[in-house]
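Lab notebook, bench 4. Still working through the backlog of constructs that have no structural model yet. Next entry is a single chain of 478 residues. Request: give me the structure tokens for it.
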Amino acid sequence: MRSVLLRGGRGAAPFLLLALVLLCAGLPGAVEAGVRVLSPRTLVRTLDPVVIQGSEFPEAEGLAFDGFRLFAEQGGELVPIRFDLNEKDEDDLYVLDQGPDGRQGTGRFGPRSELAFMARDAGGRVDARAALPGAAKVFTIQLQDPRDALIAWAYLAWYEHDAPPPAVQDRVRLTVSPLPDPLTGKAYTEIAGETYRMRSVEKSTLWYDLRGPDDTMPPYSDHVTVSFSARFYPFIPFHKDEWSLRADTRAWTDGRVRTIRRVRITVELRVGRLRIARVPARIVYDVVAYDRLVIVPVKIWSPFALRYLTMKAAIGYGLDLSPATKGLYRWYSNVNPEGFDIDGRSEGAEKKIEGERFRMPSRAYWSAQVGPYGTVVRRQIIPARYEDMGIQFYLSYTDDEEKRQGKEFFPGRVGYFENLVDVHAAGRGVFTATSYWFFPRSFRYPDDLPDLLAVLDRPIAVRVDGRQAVPGLREREE
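Model written out:
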């Protein structure tokens, strides 16, 4: 081969190289090897998922999902980045392809589709149409932090044929296992992201294993508590918690950016150990998990307004930590910004708030458990219209290893914080509060708190081909 090139003279090699470049540029699905960065990425936010409704891409309606790729500039190259496309049905539920209720969607882009990717994967601004010559359509997505106008870009491309390979990196996984977990002896479901692992007992609302991504770390949770308590007229008590509520995984999908798991709640009515009936509660919700964030709706359903049936009613949602956190973790919240050491003892200033209920607007609430095995920051949002109806939000905190409350894997209430929602004023139908669990890779308090709170309070502004788009991360407040 070397002798052939030499026969063409000194000028032949440049012409041959130019021909190869032109040939490669004309190939369907080709991506330019290098691009000129017109504006560099300045956006510094890393926790935010970006969710864009399909209605923001009217020109993409009807196009096959398989032809889409998402690109961003990274290091002077336009490279594919991970993304998910999901469909929703007319009831605004995700179309999930696995599980007993799994089904296939149309596989085509529409107004109810959703595009999801991570803001930290976006890059600088480039001439994407020139850099993606094989793409039939290219959409420019601009991300901007409303606080400081810092900015980044991504490019959604559609190929009629010969699309380039997609990004294969997968940072969140969903496992629905029929095998027994050693701790519970029961089948389990596991969500594993970059910075956390959560396990729940299958056919139960019981979440029991929360830990960092390294399995050498001990679990830093005892379990997550979920409860509904009421006193029906005339003085009839009713209580269900994570040990007695049945939750079946009905469908799921495991994407590269997020996993979605559909859960259906059924209430079992018992007298002692005898099950009298199993009542469908008409509660169906989707747990959506990203690599550093898990979104869990908390729902109750009633055929009548609770104020006509009950003297009081409340739902509770809390996290009890394990003894492994004692002396290593610190608890912060909006009612306790200076923080307390989690040590299983209630004393000093901590004693003043233990067991107290602090009423507040739900959007004011945040709570952080910060320590070496992983940090969890929780928020719980109630739609404003419910708060206007008189539904009240409370925070309660206990750190007392001597205190017992129902079943536990580890004795005591260690660094236990609970969200309490007084739903006595709720009307008929389904009431939803949404819980957000953040698992940052690193967390320096208080320096990193503003960026974390901004994910919900000051969401990244999105523009598609210059048009303002509606941020889609938060649950619809209906």
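Notes after review: Residues 88 and 241 are 30 Å apart (CA to CA). The first helix runs from residue 2 to 7. Flag for follow-up if needed.
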